[in-house]
Specification:
Largest sheet: none
Radius of gyration: 12 Å
Distance between the termini: 16 Å
Structural class: mainly alpha
Shape: globular
């Protein structure tokens, strides 16, 4: 998924108030970790699953949990 597709997916899912609340809560948690938001957006744009997993493994444990929740939310 390229960044444009990711933005479109998020915009379409934000119409659901439950999704929007959960997504905004997770983003707020990410923003409390310096520099992490940009890294997560870079990881989300990686098409190769193996490369994406390696990039996620390098994140701090708290960030890994949040990123996992975001991907689960986006894929639901």
């Amino acid at each position: 998924m390229n960044p444009f597709e990711l933005v479109n997916l998020i915009q379409s899912k934000m119409q659901n108030p439950v999704f929007a609340r959960q997504f905004n809560n997770l983003i707020s948690q990410l923003e409390s970790i310096p520099g992490l938001k940009q890294e997560v957006m870079r990881i989300a744009s990686i098409n190769d699953e193996r490369k994406r997993q390696r990039a996620i493994e390098r994140l701090p444990d708290q960030a890994k949990a949040i990123v996992g929740q975001i991907f689960a939310l986006l894929n639901s």
